[in-house]
């Protein structure tokens, strides 16, 4: 069966994206280099974390033909590092996956991010229809329906339960990705059936 799809202009053989995971060298010395090579071998998109143990340049050398995006945590008090985003673009990262601001942080950094990044921007950590609609208003190209790796605090709803409501509300206005708890092909199928265009693992 043909499982190929196109997400935000990127054609992939299956609706699966390898999401940003920092400090991978803690698990294996090759770290992100091995992950990027594996993704490239499968022709899947790999998202390089801004907190990676390997540099964007090292990953680009290891997997020069792979599809790469860049994952950025929302800037703290030091502000946006335009050099880091320039390096990511120069090494072949085409899309930016941005974590949302934490409580108490405003959206002021978004203007500087847009100035430093001229490609599509996907906002992660979306767990409600109002947040998804806000992402549309702010001009994001996509959202990741996700609990941000458990960092959204206690008492949040199950991400799979909010996915269809978010997809119904904003699907077609931006790309809707799903990024929580995907472990099997059946999980991918469920996410697609509930409105996601692809999953982030």
Describe this structure in words.
The chain is α/β, with parallel strands linked by helices. Helix content is 32%, strand content 21%. It contains seven helices and ten strands. The protein has helices at 32-42, 56-62, 82-90, 109-116, 129-137, 159-170, 185-193, and strands at 5-7, 10-12, 16-18, 45-49, 68-72, 93-98, 121-126, 142-145, 175-178, 198-200. The strands form two sheets. It has an eight-stranded parallel beta barrel, surrounded by five helices. Helix 5 packs across helix 6. The radius of gyration is 16 Å and the shape is globular. The protein starts with a strand and ends with a strand. The model has no long low-confidence stretch (mean pLDDT 94).
Our Rg estimate from Cα atoms comes to 16 Å
Content of β-strand: 15-25%
Give helix % range: 25-40%
Low-confidence regions: none
Number of helices: 7
Task: Give the overall form.
Answer: globular
Major sheet details: 8 strands, parallel, barrel
- The strands making up the biggest β-sheet line up spatially as 3-4-5-6-7-8-9-10
Q: Could you spell the SSE succession in H and E letters?
A: EEEHEHEHEHEHEHEHE
Mean pLDDT: 94
